[in-house]
Design a protein that fits this description.
This protein is of the alpha/beta class. It is globular and about 70 Å long. The protein has two domains: 228 residues, 3-Layer(aba) Sandwich (Aminopeptidase); 92 residues, Alpha-Beta Plaits. The strands form seven sheets. It has a seven-stranded mixed β-sheet with strand order 1-14-7-2-3-4-15, sandwiched between helices. A five-stranded mixed β-sheet has the order 19-18-23-20-22, covered by helices on one side. A four-stranded antiparallel β-sheet has the order 10-9-12-13, covered by helices on one side. The longest helix is centred in the middle third of the chain and has 22 residues. Strand 12 and strand 13 form a beta hairpin. The chain is built from twelve helices and 25 strands.
Length: 457
């Protein structure tokens, strides 16, 4: 989305200010590849698959290579760290973005197995494109990918961005470390650590808390990030040829496109984006439900809501008729919890029990766990109580793993506190019930941000 929007706008500015031949020369520096399996583009709406690759192989900055694990212990190969589809409708002159969670569990095209969708990018874009077209019914006309260096370069080219953090925030895995509240200026490296954060923590009431939403929380923050970066690119003078040239220069060597995406296509894209208000960018996220398959935490696509979301995103006709309403989300008051002190910290089980009761859970008893002191808390669940375990897991400060315990009796779940345990996060107020479906697809309302989420300044 970032290359498809900001760099494309820069291209049309350069075409007007410095000449078409110069723009063609600069855009010609972008690496292009032949990708079989793309759907032939027509004169109608265009769908561009935009991938942020987690490959470390071509990082040039030594600091970046160390920060993102490109040394001897680097993660091999590549996966789609961020996967979005940009939909451009020339009739309505509107653009929208659909985010695909990296942990979405789907049949992988060309194989007899199912896996997380991001694994299908390991051998290149063709299998990911086929998987999206087959499993989600989204035709992919063009492909754009960007690595970590290119992302940081885009942010630095516009002078960094300003993000409002309601609370101090951190993520030990992405490198995010925000020590103050309010508007903070982020350079490219800091912005990347925010955009990649899947283990987001925030400091509230003297304790660190996980947001508990993993990739779905990250997607929500990325949608906010896109609007902030687009607005900054405009305010930084992207329509100035010098600024536009800097923006394109920051990305051309870290971007790959399909060889059917011509200079004319990019300039045409830029013309449609030139007047786009970042606040009017429509964003979608595939509806999913958590699951554990083969011991791995994944996300399952919810139906028929998934098909309805894709149809809305593609601007198709009326959404399919609703099926039997999904059961209401599990309430803490229906979950019986046994609390065991596994860290050895005095009175920790009692304190956790008090906080669990305040959060609405039913505590059946407390005690001390046998054995060694684990670093991370554990949530054990009785057969058939996985949903209850996942609900509790999201409220455990300091993080927690979940595991089935067939021998558990007298409670739905058992919380064994670890040395990283930092308390129980209060259950957020339920979101208001959605309005009845309209007779025709309507753009979704901007998401309501949780109180701890970063936002525009």
């Amino acid at each position: 989305m970032l290359i498809g929007g900001n760099v494309a706008v820069a291209a049309v500015v350069l075409a007007a200010g410095l000449g078409y031949l110069y723009v063609k020369l600069r855009l010609g520096e972008i690496n292009s590849v032949n990708i079989p399996g793309l759907t032939a583009a027509t004169s109608g709406a265009t769908n561009i698959l935009v991938v942020g690759s987690d490959t470390r192989s071509n990082l040039t900055d030594p600091n970046a290579r160390n920060a993102f694990g490109a040394g001897t212990n680097a993660t091999a190969g590549q996966r789609s760290d961020v996967t979005m589809v940009l939909h451009i409708d020339p009739k309505s002159k509107q653009a929208s973005v659909l985010s695909i969670p990296r942990d979405l569990y789907v049949p992988i095209a060309g194989t007899n197995r199912s896996d997380r969708i991001n694994s299908s990018f390991g051998n290149g874009p063709q299998q990911l494109i086929q998987t999206i077209q087959t499993d989600l019914g989204i035709p992919v006309h063009h492909f754009v990918s960007m690595n970590f260096d290119g992302f940081q370069g885009l942010v630095n080219a516009v002078g960094g961005i300003d993000v409002n953090f309601p609370d101090p925030a951190k993520d030990a895995f992405s490198g995010l470390n925000i020590t103050k509240t309010g508007c903070q200026h982020l350079d490219g490296a800091a912005a990347l650590s925010l955009a990649r954060s899947r283990d987001y923590q925030y400091l509230a009431n003297g304790s660190w808390h996980f947001d508990g939403e993993g990739d779905l929380g990250r997607i929500r923050r990325q949608h906010t990030f896109i609007r902030i970066l687009m607005a900054k690119a405009i305010s930084a003078g992207i329509r100035n040829p010098i600024t536009a040239n800097s923006l394109i220069s920051s990305a051309v060597h870290d971007v790959t496109i399909d060889n059917k995406l011509s200079t004319g296509d990019i300039l045409g894209l830029a013309m449609r984006f030139r007047s786009l208000d970042p606040n009017n960018l429509v964003t979608y996220t595939l509806p999913t439900a958590p699951a554990v398959i083969g011991g791995a935490d994944v996300l399952r696509l919810q139906q028929p809501a998934g098909t309805q979301t894709v149809n809305q995103f593609l601007g198709k006709g009326q959404p399919p008729a609703p099926s039997t309403p999904a059961p209401p989300p599990l309430a803490p008051s229906s979950v019986k919890v046994q609390v065991l002190n596994g860290s050895g910290t005095a009175a920790q089980a009692s304190r956790a029990a008090t906080e669990l009761k305040s959060a609405g859970f039913v505590v059946t008893g407390t005690g001390n766990a046998a054995g060694t002191h684990p670093a991370t808390s554990e949530v054990l669940y009785a057969p058939g109580k996985q949903q209850a375990a996942q609900l509790l897991q999201g409220r455990v400060g300091g993080g927690a793993s979940i595991q089935q315990d067939p021998a558990l009796h007298g409670a739905d779940v058992s919380l064994v506190t670890g040395t990283s345990f930092s308390g129980i996060t209060p259950v957020a107020a339920p979101a208001p019930a959605p309005a009845p479906a309209a007779t025709a697809p309507a753009a979704p309302a901007p998401p309501v941000l949780p109180p701890y989420d970063p936002r525009a300044c």
